[in-house]
Design a protein that fits this description.
This protein has 185 residues and is mainly alpha-helical. It has two domains: 6-55, no CATH class; 59-164, no CATH class. It is 68% helix and 5% strand. The chain has helices at residues 6-27, 34-46, 59-70, 75-91, 99-126, 132-164; strands spanning 170-174, 180-184. It has a two-stranded antiparallel ribbon. Helix 3 (59-70) packs antiparallel against helix 4 and helix 5 (99-126) packs antiparallel against helix 6 (132-164). The chain is flat. The two termini are 41 Å apart.
Length: 185
């Protein structure tokens, strides 16, 4: 049930969101008008509580979409890859994870996707007769992708381990007779 104050507050917030979307449409182009960019910046700064920026897709998501879009595959396969990537992030525990873990899960999933796409390209290149220089190029590219994926997974694992293994608070209490009592919470 809305109170008398919530109605006008929600209406004002909705007006601000509409204005934000209008300014976003005006500025989300190659060469926007500087006055529109300033108005957008002012609107974002003046309404921090509304977190208007959340309505814009993240750079991480755009990176995922761009990698899939640029891959050599049919539209149907690309669509399946999008869903597989989302499912992989979910299986890695993105839902409900702390923000840092969510960012690392997104990075690990993106590295996994890139590694597999490079592995696919590498396999196609190796089917034919190639020069030694091209062979070295593909080996280095594949090795770099493998290292990035491994580092992303190791970092995620390390952060999870550190966040879950916080030591319990221990208090030492002196008792009568000089004995010490350790209490953990």
């Amino acid at each position: 049930m809305l109170t008398a104050m919530e109605g006008p507050i929600n209406a004002k917030a909705e007006q601000i969101r509409i204005k934000f979307q209008t300014l976003l449409d005006k500025t989300n182009i190659e060469n926007p008008q500087p006055k529109d960019v300033k108005a957008l910046a002012d609107l974002l700064s003046g309404n921090k509580g509304l977190e208007l920026w959340r309505d814009v897709v993240s750079a991480g998501y755009l990176a995922e979409v761009t990698v899939i879009k640029n891959a050599r595959a049919t539209p149907a396969v690309k669509e399946c890859w999008k869903h597989r990537l989302q499912n992989l992030k979910k299986e890695l525990g993105s839902d409900g994870a702390p923000l840092l873990e969510q960012l690392l899960i997104q990075q690990a999933a993106l590295c996994w996707l890139k590694l597999n796409l490079i592995e696919l390209s590498y396999s196609h290149a190796m089917k034919q007769s190639i020069t030694l220089t091209l062979g070295i190029y593909w080996e280095k590219r594949l090795s770099a992708a493998q290292r990035r994926f491994t580092r992303a997974c190791e970092t995620l694992t390390r952060v999870r381990k550190l966040s879950r293994n916080t030591p319990a608070l221990q208090v030492n209490i002196a008792t009568e007779g000089g004995r010490q009592l350790n209490v953990s919470s």
